Amino acid sequence: KAQTRGSPDWDFCYSLLNAVSRSFSIVIQQLPPQLRDAVCIFYLVLRALDTIEDDMTIPVDVKVPELVKFHTRLRDREWKYVCGEKDYRRLMLNYPLVTQAFLQLDSVHQEVITDIARRMGKGMAEFIERDVETVQDYDLYCHYVAGLTGLGLVHLFKASRLEHGDLPDDLANSMGLFLQKTNIIRDYLEDINEEPAPRMFWPKEIWGKYGRVLEDFKDPANSAAAVQCLNHLVLNVMRHAVRSLEFLSRLQDIQVFRFCAIPQVMAIGTLAECFNNPQVFTGVVKMRRGETAKYMVSINSMRNVYLAFAHFACIMIKKCNGPAQNDPHATELHVVLNEVL
Ligand SMILES: CC(C)(C)CN1C(=O)[C@@H](CC(=O)N[C@@H](CC(=O)O)C(=O)O)O[C@H](c2cccc3ccccc23)c2cc(Cl)ccc21
Fold first, then answer.
1. Residue among 36, 47, 186, 258 flagged as catalytic
2. Per-residue model confidence as pLDDT tens digits over 136-159
3. Residues 31, 43: contact at Cβ < 8 Å?
4. Burial of 64 (0-12, 13-18, 19+ CB in 10 A)
5. Residue 188 bears catalytic tag
6. Distance between CA atoms of residues 255 and 182, nearest Å
7. Is 68 in a helix, a strand, or coil?
8. Please, which residues have CB within 8 angstroms of residue 125's CB and are 6 or more apart in sequence?
9. Residue of 199, 239, 250, 306 marked catalytic
10. ipTM, 2 decimals?
């Protein structure tokens, strides 16, 4: 059909979604109609912002204003900023189609997405000019890039009248931190080998106890210290698990529940693989593909989420009692895991 100025090309937007989010796009497309398009566009908008932040070929004095101004581009039908690689570059090249669709959303959905994009862009810009040093920096950075996503999603759920429960900011924030911190831990090698310049988010307050520089952990001679640092970081992210479960237990719509629960289960599965695993420093550790598929279809109730969390908590507890038994943080992780159980 002729693409008149008014009618957005939704098929193209969903094909972009499939390209940039592999398995997760299926879950987004299963959302109820009053939420699906808003979440699809929210996801693409955040992915575009993330692509600008991640592109290390953009000079800092150009990137910072771009991030801060990004939210003003959401209504600019001509705007695009070509950067990034592969499917993310295709998103940026075709960004005006995302804008056309964004402008068709309910005004409330547009306002939510604009407010989050503004706060996230400002936060990202803050951390372009300074590194993540303390654990407080670590929590603040992850709040900006992932916690705010949770706050925005809660506003979209409420605006679509699918969720009426109390979904406070600190629970929504924990959902984001659980995912983002897991990605940061898993992606050590990918991030540190990044060309032309690595961007690391591991907090120096933690890794500084185990090495002089973060690159030290690539050296097999430092494997014991690297794994101790890794276990310390896994303990830190597992502290958010109880709040994630609390958030999930308050959801009312089954498709919204699946949309929120599936990434959380993938994350704890990834953490269980990573915990006490030196392969994090030699390759990228991922859940087995069969496991991912199994959880995509089985996460339909809070009971199944508890079963999945308990399954992965037990894998970590076995490691605490076995190979990691001399690790100072294994004991504390045991306590946190028992809370989860
Ligand atoms: C940085 C991030 C964790 C927020 C990214 N993020 C997520 O990780 C996606 C999952 C995803 O994209 N998985 C990828 C795998 C990967 O890229 O690692 C896949 O292809 O399966 O989920 C989150 C997400 C989903 C549901 C509830 C959330 C609550 C708070 C914060 C984030 C929430 C997400 C929801 C939206 Cl709307 C936008 C982005 C995200």
1. 186
2. 999 999 999 999 999 999 999 999
3. no
4. middle
5. no
6. 24
7. helix
8. 63, 64, 67, 68
9. 199
10. 0.97
